[in-house]
Amino acid sequence: MSGFVFSEKPIEIASGDGVYLTDTSGTEYLDFGASYACTPVGHCHPAVVDAATSQLEELMYVQASYPHAARTALYEQLSAAGPGDVDNVWLCNSGTEANEAALKFARHATGREKIVATTQGFHGRTMGALATTWKQTYKQGFEPLAGGVEFVEYGDSDAMREAVDEDTAAVILEPLQGEGGINPAPTAYLEAVREATEAAGAAMVLDEIQAGLGRTGSLWAAERHDVVPDVLTTAKGLGSGLPIGATLCRDWIAEDAGDHGSTFSGGPVVSAAAGATLDVIEREALAAHADEIGAYLRDELESRLGDDVRDVRGDGLMIGVEVKRGSNRLLRDLALDHQMLALPAGRTVLRLLPPLTIEREHADAAVDAIAEVVG
Ligand SMILES: *Cc1c(COP(=O)(O)O)cnc(C)c1O
Q: Where in the chain is the domain with CATH 3.90.1150.10?
């Protein structure tokens, strides 16, 4: 036994191309989880492979204190992409680190300790981000985690208004919860969070690590709601599977963020991959495509699955299908009998996060497969 902790699946993947993964025996699988939303432009997109490969040959690494073209270009792209005036960029290596930085920056800029997080929220597994993650089993045996975190019911504006006060450094939440069951936040709720944080001088941190990069039908979920946070975090699909995360901040946070750093921050290869990924999302208008094909997919799921499921919900290509029994068995049947890969979100929700590049034929194939396993 070598690796541990992760539970392994009985399929050994050998290669990936677009919306398909192929195992070592040559069987193709439709990847409707995009390997946890990490391949928004599809597996091994040629533009991303080219950018990373040329960068690898040119310069694999240089210490973060020297500027290099790939990182400088990515700073500019992310700065321009950030919603409203959220245009200062900190680069790191994963989602949890992006949130860890967000919480550190917010504490430093406000000089306060308290952090408000939400029930069912997921923000990562390091000691700070984990402290803001809801699920108890992720924390068991690892305490004490970072202190000063208070949880409020996700979606409850009054509870949020009551919790956010003059001691609050930050509120952290997902605009559409992924891991917690695909729970969309109503616009009025996000507006209430925005008002409460602004009134208290606290930072509103939107974790878009799963929902961002076009997945919900606009580049950022925040834009769908017309809410501009103080800090926005992204990771997962940013490097098309290479490890990179980013914390985007407004000036008042960035100007007083304190002393933070990371050896691999914005390394050349991941920066090149992220720059190319953002290019493809923009050039192929994948957010608008996700909006359109996502609406089609949800409609088809609703009409085909009918009473066989409890609910179909989500935005764009971030879709939850709440089923009537445990989702694990269904996911296994989908994979082994229908060569379709999807994800769980809790015990009773099938989570669909396909590459944003899927076409109707893929949506139809997925609906056929899901209809068979839930029927
Ligand atoms: C996956 C995820 C994280 C953690 O990202 P890692 O790269 O696994 O550390 C944080 N927040 C959300 C919403 C996520 O989906």
A: 13-44+285-374
Whether the pTM exceeds 0.85: the reply is yes
Write down the CATH number for the domain with range 46-283: 3.40.640.10
- Domain 13-44+285-374, CATH number (from 3.40.50.720, 3.90.1150.10, 3.40.50.620, 3.40.50.300): 3.90.1150.10
> What spacing in Å lies between the alpha carbon of 306 and ligand 1's midpoint?
32
Ligand 1 pocket by C-beta < 6 Å: which residues? 94-96, 99, 122-124, 174, 178-179, 207, 209-210, 235-236
Q: For residue range 335-366, list pLDDT tens digits in order.
A: 999 999 999 998 999 999 999 999 999 999 99
Distance 152 CA to ligand 1 centre (A): 20
| Cβ atoms 201, 181 nearer than 8 A | no
**Strand-pair category, 114-118 with 149-152:** parallel
275 contacts 77 by C-beta, under 8 angstroms: yes
User: 92-110 burial, b if ≥16 CB within 10 A, otherwise e?
Assistant: bbbbbbbbbbbbbbbbbbb
The 10 Å Cβ neighbour count of residue 350 is 26
Amino acid at 117: A
For 211-240, how does the pLDDT look when each residue is reduced to its tens digit (9 = 90+)?
999 999 999 999 999 999 999 999 999 999
